[in-house]
Write a structure and sequence with these properties.
GO molecular function: ABC-type transporter activity
Strand content: 5-15%
Membrane topology: Multi-pass membrane protein
Largest sheet: 4 strands, mixed
Helix content: 55-70%
Family: Belongs to the ABC-2 integral membrane protein family.
Subcellular location: Cell membrane
Oligomer: single chain
Number of helices: 13
Order of helices and strands: EHHEHEHEHHHHHHHHH
Pfam families: ABC2_membrane_3
Structural class: mainly alpha
Distance between the termini: 64 Å
């Protein structure tokens, strides 16, 4: 909240917004300069700025605009928040007119959506679909790789081959990396050229994030494949992981709205970090420096999953 109006109207409308069950006041700022830090970090969805002459304009029968700055990265949530705020301001205006006995005035919202000016839902959904489809295909390709060999009988040939376990693991990981990376590239091209979603960030930053994510997804898929005895088990195991991973990724529901225990659980989900990287690269213009906090968890998950997969493959070989 930024309130530059010393009058009664500014305090009253802010009290109504803060007291509404749909909103929670995070901070009161002395100027609009501090708004960007809260919106960019995701700590606040919306900022309200009451201009200096808000009360004076309403008492004089002139329009009293108040600016609403909203995070447009989640267009659905932003639209709902704007509708709630508009209803509250309309109710305030009706009570203000009745209380002061003056002609109806216009206490109007002037919305400004950052990162998605028109609040187009496809700007929010399509980058997430890039991660979703890449994740599903990569998990399925790698999740059926080892078990397919075992079921067809060719796995025994690997046992007597001169290849080391890590070499076999690398051979199973490379196809998933190529297929997942190729699919991600095609979907990103379709997002930009077909769906007209702006890509404002660094291609290198996105490529690095996708590479780390693919390593994590391949490691998880190889773990599933090493544990499964048949392709049906591998397919079932893959979907048992895919569905909750998507639900807990922030693809449709903001992670901040989940229970606290579930939020901690999402830290083990590589999809969570990819969603931030994709939307940051597409909508926020982020580069490697801004996305560094998403890289190292992905790298850790990738390393851990590949080590576990290598141990399981080696255990099945001897």
């Amino acid at each position: 909240v930024v309130n530059d109006d010393p009058g009664l109207a500014g305090r009253q409308v802010l009290a109504r917004l803060s007291g509404a069950p749909s909103f929670h006041e995070i901070a009161t700022l002395p100027s609009t300069d501090g708004i960007a830090a809260f919106i960019d970090s995701g700590r606040a969805l919306m900022a309200v700025h009451i201009e200096r002459d808000f009360t004076r304009n309403l008492l004089a029968g002139r329009p009293g605009p108040m600016q609403i700055i909203i995070d447009g990265r989640n267009s659905n949530t932003a639209t709902i928040a704007l509708n709630y705020a508009n209803d509250i301001v309309l109710a305030f205006e009706a009570d203000w007119v009745a209380e002061h006995g003056i002609p109806p005035t216009l206490a109007t919202l002037v919305p400004r959506a950052w990162y998605n000016p028109d609040l187009l839902s496809r700007w929010f959904v399509v980058p997430g679909i890039v991660g979703l489809l890449t994740f599903v295909v990569t998990i399925l390709v790698s999740g059926l790789s080892v078990v397919r060999e075992r079921e067809s009988g060719t796995y025994d040939q690997l046992l007597v081959s001169p290849y080391r376990p890590w070499e076999i693991l690398l051979g199973k990981a490379i196809p998933g990396f190529i297929i997942g990376g190729g699919e991600a590239t095609l979907i990103i091209a379709a997002a930009v050229l077909w769906f007209r979603v702006p890509f404002t960030g660094s291609p290198l930053a996105l490529a690095l994030g996708l590479a780390l994510f693919l390593i994590s997804a391949i490691g998880i898929g190889l773990i599933i494949s090493a544990l499964a005895a048949t392709q049906q088990q591998g397919l079932l195991g893959a979907f048992l992981f895919i569905v909750p991973a998507i639900l807990l990724s922030g693809f449709a529901t903001p992670i901040a709205n989940m229970p606290e225990a579930v939020q901690y659980l999402t830290l083990l989900n590589p999809m969570r970090y990819l969603m931030v990287i994709l939307r940051g690269a597409f909508l926020e213009g982020d580069g490697i420096r801004q996305l560094a906090n998403q890289y190292w968890p992905l790298a850790g998950l990738g390393l851990a999953s590949m080590i576990i997969a290598a141990w399981l493959v080696r255990r099945r070989m001897y």
